[in-house]
Amino acid sequence: TPTVGVLALQGDTAEHLRVLGVLGVPAVPVLHPEDLDRVDGLILPGGESTTMSKLAARYDLVEPLRKHIGDGMPAYGTCAGMILLADRILDGAADQQTLGGLDITARRNAFGRQTESFEAGIDVDGVGGDPFEAVFIRAPWVESVGERVRVLGQIAYGERAGRIVAVRQGGLLATSFHPELTGDPRIHRLFVDMVKGQA
Ligand code: GLN
Questions:
Q1: Is the dihedral of CA 194, 27, 76, 14 positive or negative?
Q2: Domain at 4-195, CATH class
Q3: 16 in catalytic set
Q4: Could you say which residues bind L-glutamine here (predicted)?
Q5: The complex's ipTM?
Q6: In 3D, which of 139, 127, 118, 135 has the Cα closest to residue 183?
Q7: Ligand 1 closest atom vs CA 109
Q8: Is position 79 annotated as part of the catalytic site?
């Protein structure tokens, strides 16, 4: 069984560790560069992407993260974590840098303010069963994708219909929403299968 790390700078780290625990997957927080040598895959949680970028710089994690991601370490970014993985962002803060790796343009806070947080059922390609009950909290959407990126999920109904909220490029997975908050482990299981090389 692989060990999955969860970036522990800020945000929903504990919730991701808990879901991995429910799945019986060894999981550890990642806060220092050497922690990255002990994990087979990494989750970048939701939270606040500008804060996470600043903390990543303070903990000397920016280049180690870029190197591991560039060398093929599987990674899954949720919400702010999607922004961190995006090669390009729109509506970022002044000088906001990302780690990159995922050939997408993510629009930050695209769905509106905190008070406009919402839930929606999303059919996620590769996740069987009922639509995934997805929680969006000041979430980004994927404005555009490069040709190596596969769209896994879009909003189905309403004024936001068609907005891309789940993508994959090789070992990199990203969702606009927060699967760690709903008690449904199916997307974590997909990522663990990716880390195992089984998905
Ligand atoms: N709006 C946040 C950001 O830009 C992301 C919100 C979230 O992760 N729930 O980083």
A1: positive
A2: alpha beta
A3: no
A4: 47-49, 108, 137-138
A5: 0.93
A6: 135
A7: 1
A8: yes
